[in-house]
Amino acid sequence: MREPYEVLGVARNASQDDIKRAFRRLAKKLHPDANTSDPKAQDKFAELNTAHEILSDPEARGKYDRGEIDGEGKPKFQGYPGGGAGFGGAGFGQGGPGGFRRTGPNGETIFESFHFDDDSAARRGRQGANSGFEDVFSDLFGRFRSGGGRASSEAAPKGGDIEIVVPVPLERVVEGGPVKVALPGGSTVEIKVPAGVSEGHRLRLKGKGEASPFGGAPGDAYVVVHYATHPQFRVDGVDLRLDLAVPLQDAVLGGKLRVPTLGGSVDLTIPAWTQNGRTFRLRGKGMPNTHGGHGDLLATARIALPDDRDPELEELMRKRRKAAE
Fold first, then answer.
1. Is the N or the C terminus of the chain less surrounded, counting Cβ atoms within 10 Å?
2. Which pLDDT tens digit goes with each residue over 226-284?
3. Is residue 302 a contact partner of residue 276, using CB atoms and an 8 Å limit?
4. For residue 282, what are the CA distances in angstroms to 236, 256, 290?
5. CA-CA distance, 169 to 324, in Å (whole number)?
């Protein structure tokens, strides 16, 4: 697992705005929908989301910078003297499957508060060298037990949280409304996204995450909003970009064209002698911004020849070519 700063391509002193911009740029580049031929696309996108989740949360970022969690957001074991993994077991206390870290009444880790006194040394002599460790595990897991050895749902740890990236159509982003979310188990739920929701926004579905292996409450599912690819518009920050087909006669003589927007078509006046590549700005027809307004729609003229061959137009072009020679 690479470190989050490397995944996002930002410096360790990067601002929250830098982190947000890097995530939005890479999310478009690495999204599985845009990399269907890459078998590792899903893993790369998941790594990006994990890095963003850590660095966009000041508390989690601080824990990572202090070495309290790793690049996956899992706790690192720090209580054993010397800073090693402790007790010869790779992964013990590392936050992996079954990993944990327990604190004593004064906030110290269990390995700091546990010690062998004379009595415990005597017990080791009678019961074997691992007796003291067995006492530790018995105390740790005893509070999770109820009748018949089954885990108590009141005390057992909850299941893991999951993250689901959901493509949201741009029209739904502007208007807000229901979006269906497919859960890992095969079921679907319908959520309502707010109007003007930003890309990368997270919505919590309580209890829709992984089941607890100890019989506790299930984890939560976090729905991450991703702007779905649109057949006409390209998102550029809070602006939208559009290639606008301009008939040759309108480019030469001028005219009016109907231009599509997310809120319906509008009229645009095309001046005479409009060059190919000229961009027209339709103010307020873009994506919602953080100030309650909207960005702009940037329509770039693309000169379009007639669908059918026009002999008169061809003859005119021959005359102009000959005149220019």
1. C
2. 999 999 999 998 899 999 999 999 999 999 999 999 989 999 999 999 999 999 999 99
3. yes
4. 14, 14, 19
5. 50
